[in-house]
Input
Amino acid sequence: MPTSDGNGARPEIDVTKPHPARVYDWMLGGKDNYLVDEELARQMLAFDPSIPLMARANRAFMHRSTRWLAEQGVRQFLDIGTGIPTEPNLHQIAQSVAPDARIVYCDNDPIVLAHADALMRGTAEGALEFVRADAREIDTVFHEAAKTLDFDRPMAVSLIALLHFVTDEGDADHLVNRVKEILSPGSYLVLSHVTADFHAEEDVRRAKEVAKSRGYNAALRTRDRIERFFDGLGLVDPGLVLAEDWHPEPDGTNAHRGNLNSSTYVGVARRA
Output
């Protein structure tokens, strides 16, 4: 699979501080992470044992929403903040429905790029590209993605488990607003975001302190704040809900677990 980072450089993997993609990989039971990622993940688990549920529910939402979008006729996907590949990945789901689907992944961690090179293989009928860039440099992302995707045609742009790592309100709003600006009619914004709505304020404060001490910031926005990211678009049914409640599987595989929930709001919205 071709890859691009704008200048061809591939920096060394920094194993001295945790990275969101690798912490997420550990939560999913993956092996593409380092001790520094595991240490932070275990510290966070001490505050909230449901965190692995968040990761699994979020991943399952990505699977269901991608399949739903492909069934609606979407044939172009831009996944910003893709994380370390896990099967099935977005392109596998989209191209299982529509072999001619065109997918661009974007992430800024070199370990993600390395695994993308080794693991991601698409269909002959479709297209698959990886862009190495920081999501906050969104115009660079668009520039590189436009080599594969036609921005004048409908597409789905995914911001899955990304915005809670964009702590500055100005940066987060700029990123989302730029995405909405480039969406052509009939396009979709797919978003998932961890929240602190279901946790005690003191627990959230302590968890943020632990994360910040490892250079790992988080913006755990409220439901109302997250919903504002969709302003100007039309949320499709069932609206902004917990990850496990968005078109749940009939067999209940992504249902609530006792008193726990994913603490992750998700939504899919369409530009008219």
Remarks:
- The two ends are 33 Å apart (CA to CA).
- The chain has one domain: 3-8+16-270.
- Strands lie at 3-4, 76-80, 102-107, 127-132, 156-160, 188-194, 234-235, 241-242, 264-270.
- The chain has a mean pLDDT of 87.
